[in-house]
């Protein structure tokens, strides 16, 4: 950026990272997108679905949303099915997030930067 004469703030996007690619980018990038697509549909840890459903009973039952005439009736079985499909991906996202916190990175360019800027600070675009 300096060689190009750019005087304003700038940031580096690591793009989509996962546990296989994160080490290459966490130290030199300002933000990234957590990519856990490979974990969708993978079986979560044993007992994770039951523990999740037990902890989140509020997800079961009738849900009314303003502007939608008919409430959604959500069964325990449906919550278990959805949790079974996505919990492993959610757990992986949590792992990547916690690693990013240790490296003081942000997860989105919309949030305030936590790493020092490389040049004098300018407003974020």
Strand content: 5-15%
Low-confidence stretches: 108-125
Summarize model confidence as the mean pLDDT: 80
Oligomer: single chain
Which strand order do you get reading across the main beta sheet?
1-2
Helix content: 25-40%
Overview of this structure, please?
With 125 residues, this protein is of the alpha+beta class. The chain is built from 3 helices and 4 strands, in the order E-H-E-H-E-E-H. A hairpin with an 8-residue loop joins strand 3 and strand 4. Helix 2 packs across helix 3. It is elongated and about 60 Å long. The two termini are 17 Å apart.
Write the layout of secondary structure elements.
Elements: E1 13-17, H1 22-25, E2 31-34, H2 48-55, E3 61-63, E4 72-74, H3 76-102
Parallel strand pairs: 1-2
Antiparallel strand pairs: 3-4
Helix pairs in contact: 2-3
What brief labels describe this structure?
single chain; 125 residues; alpha+beta; two-stranded parallel ribbon; two-stranded antiparallel ribbon; 3 helices
Briefly characterize the structure.
The chain is of the alpha+beta class and 125 residues long. The protein is built from three helices and four strands.
């Amino acid at each position: 950026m300096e060689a190009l004469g750019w005087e304003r703030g700038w940031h580096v996007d690591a793009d989509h990272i996962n546990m296989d690619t994160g080490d290459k980018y966490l130290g030199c990038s300002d933000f990234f997108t957590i990519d856990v697509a490979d974990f969708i549909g993978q079986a979560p840890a044993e007992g994770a679905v039951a523990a999740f459903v037990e902890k989140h009973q509020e997800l079961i039952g009738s849900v009314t949303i303003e502007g939608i005439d008919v409430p959604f009736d959500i069964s325990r079985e449906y919550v278990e099915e959805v949790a079974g499909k996505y919990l492993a991906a959610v757990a992986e996202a949590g792992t990547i997030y916690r690693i990013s916190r240790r490296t003081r990175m942000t997860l989105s360019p919309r949030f305030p930067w936590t790493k020092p800027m490389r040049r004098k600070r300018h407003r974020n675009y």
